[in-house]
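re: ur question from earlier - yeah i can do the single chain one, its not a big deal. heres the input i used so u can compare w yours
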Amino acid sequence: MEKLYEQNAFLKRFTAHVVSCTPGRKGFEIRLDQTAFYPEGGGQPWDLGTLGGVRVREVHERDGHVVHTCAGALEEGSEVEGILDWSRRFDLMQQHSGEHIVSGFAHARWGCDNVGFHMGSDVITIDLNRVLDGKDLEWLEDAVNRYIWEDHPTIITYPTPEELDALDYRSKKELTGQVRIVSFPGGDTCACCGTHVTSTGQIGLVKLLGAVRFREGVRIELVCGGRAMAWLNRAAAQNHHVSNLLSAKVFETGAAVERLLEERDRLKARLQTLEEQHLAAIARRCAGAGHQVVFEDDLSPDALRRLCDSVLQVCGGWSACFTGDEEHGYRYAIGCPEGTDDLRPVIRELNRSLHGRGGGRANFVQGSFSSGRKSIVDSLNNLQNWSFLGL
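and the output i got, formated as tokens:
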């Protein structure tokens, strides 16, 4: 089989003869006498498109043959036209070529190796076996893009074993047989079977989106070419939207958000103080009154727990506090003086009768009931002589 994609990565249409067509698990598996469809390999996804008007679903290499998994059958011996999804192929070429140059510059400057590469539908990732900090990544992005804009050629060679021994190139594994070398002079030299641009200017732009620690090194997330432009356009549109919402200039949105967060923190602190005062006032009304039931609107789980505890400290009996509404049900926090009773069998019975869930310790339980307020009150009345606050 002739692999046309190795001879001309910019071939968008071609004709070929169908060597075989057999049904498979995902469709019809078709072999041709030649193909421009790249099979999955080396971190690069397979090409998509059509063969004889039939959709190509997957492309894999098996035993040296490229197998096209298609949505329909093609007649053996017939001549068919193959049409690549060119926008997708060119995008993958931009990503793959950009990855080479990023890895090459990182290897040349810090001696680190690319130990993992994944080309996703949105971003690509590179795993390097050395930790890089923010300044390192700034240098890397700047150096790679300056090299790209110089528009260096892409050189593909098939060196002899002797030439290969004398060549300094990147490879993740020991290679045998004929080796294909992809070189970006001054940027990277690597053994690779993938498709690439013919010169670096066709990559256009590389944008490093971020990096996280991964194993003993770092995982870099990046986009190249058209993806980089699309990402920057989305980021610019989002920032423009934020600038309009905050009435801030486009390059001053960060400072505007910081001011907004500072104001939020001041308001949260003030609200916390007011809430504490409100809960303390409720507790004072319950002082010495015995078993207490309190319904209070719009409390967070933490505030509900604190209210229950505050009432429990002063009421001289059980404290049962609720927040919620008739549509969504009520959250509860129920406590009793330590060492006096065990709430766990009580709450199991209440959960059963009030369609609730939750539990806790002998002297404190929390959870939620799906039933309405009247059902809750009726169930509690069957347990104790309660004093009801907030009804």
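The chain has nine helices and 21 strands. not sure if urs matches, ping me
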